Amino acid sequence: MSILRVEGLTKHFRGVTAVDDVSFEVEQGSILGVIGPNGAGKTTVFNLIAGAIAPDAGRTFLDGAEVTGRPPHVIARAGMVRTFQLMRPFYSMSVLDNVTIAVLASGASSRTARDQAAEIIDTVGLGTWRDAPTEGLPTAALKRLELARALALRPKVLLLDEVLAGLVPTERAPVLDLLERLRRDEGVTLVFVEHIMAAVMRLSDSVLVLNLGRVLTSGPPDEVTKDPRVIEAYLGEEPTRADS
Length: 244
Known about the structure:
Layout: E1 2-13, E2 16-27, E3 31-35, H1 42-50, E4 57-62, E5 65-66, H2 72-78, E6 80-82, H3 95-105, H4 113-123, H5 139-151, E7 157-161, H6 169-186, E8 189-193, H7 197-203, E9 206-211, E10 214-219, H8 221-224, H9 228-235
Parallel strand pairs: 3-8, 3-9, 6-7, 7-8
Antiparallel strand pairs: 1-2, 1-4, 4-5, 9-10
Helix pairs in contact: 3-4, 3-5, 4-5
């Protein structure tokens, strides 16, 4: 059963077609990896389906209901939440306060919000930073905080925009473990944009490849990475080199 369905999304900016007739579906409880060269339209697609910008054409359906062009907070309440490559926490507040605000935004009671926030902080592995000021946190901790704030909204679908960006290899594995647990234990459907092919191959049930704003191909990771069109447009002559 598809929890997210995108039909013919198109967006123009000053005569330039950033997204051109993009369609795809995501099965409930699955993980979709989205790859493509810089400028392929990946983040714009996220902005369109999450409500940050309105499409010129096309429709988006979440759990069977159309959410095309709805504001981000309405789409988030319907169950689709995104993270950002550039984190946007409240730097003047503690980690706990940041997550508590997100829990309250989900409609939780003010009496239980801090307890719920503390549980989410433990889930993402930020327990040692719970009462720390957000300003000055290392990148790896900020990435986990971004995830915690998104999870506080109780998403059915979580859109992750380069969640591994800025992390060194030793910091990536724990984040990948966390994402796998979220799918397995929480039932969250994941759609993630990523350039690190080792992560794409490990996590993805299927992969969507964008190029020049259009869908180049989609399918199982092993098949997609062997496609000559994908190798030419994105991976280069030796796909395995992208795993480093």
